[in-house]
Amino acid sequence: MTCGFPELLKGFDFLIAVIGLLPAAWAHALHRAEGLCLGPHRQHVPRPYRRLIVVLTTVPWWAAMLRIPFSVIAPVIIVICAIGAYTVHSSMFDVVMMLVFGVMGYLFKKLKDPLAPWVMAMVLGDMAEASFRQAMLLSQGSLGIFWSNPLVGRIAALALLLLLWPLVGNLNARLRAQERAARG
User: Fold this and answer.
1) pLDDT tens-digit map of 44-68
2) Are 153 and 41 in contact (CB under 8 A)?
3) What is this structure's pTM?
4) 78 near 90, Cβ under 8 Å?
5) Any idea where the domains of the chain sit in the sequence?
6) Dist CA 94 CA 10 (whole Å)
7) Distance between CA atoms of 178 and 181, rounded to whole angstroms?
8) Distance between CA atoms of 25 and 8, rounded to whole angstroms?
9) Which residues contact residue 8 at a Cβ distance below 8 angstroms, ignoring those fewer than 6 apart?
10) How far apart are CA 171 and CA 179, in angstroms?
């Protein structure tokens, strides 16, 4: 599954993907800016007002950024991102991966596919894979560990149901369409 790139054997760092998918990171940057602007009083200010305060306090900075032509700012952003990606493991492969994720992010944006679920999937997927490996080691490879007690069994069944729900919905829609076609 490395597509001929032995560097992929070690996987890629989550940070590389986030740097490449930079538009999705703006939400995190806004959250951090709230903390910096409001300090310890952050929890006492309702969320919509926090966002408004952050936006109002950073308007001059954003206005200055908007005056810079895109043809100048885009290469600067790419270079800064590339430097950040390189410093993770001092690897040019990470820079290439950052660019691949950047292209993917651009395509997702053009297709109006939200990036936040992809970022969450990368975070949770890594944790899920590590937990699955640990469960398989503990159970010596038996999938029965996922039904080892009633609570775990219910959670596993719910997860399977949620995974298969789109297939059930599609099957149901097809059956209804066939019924309508048979009637009319």
Assistant:
1) 666 666 666 766 777 777 677 767 7
2) no
3) 0.55
4) no
5) 6-113, 143-183
6) 11
7) 5
8) 24
9) 1, 2
10) 12
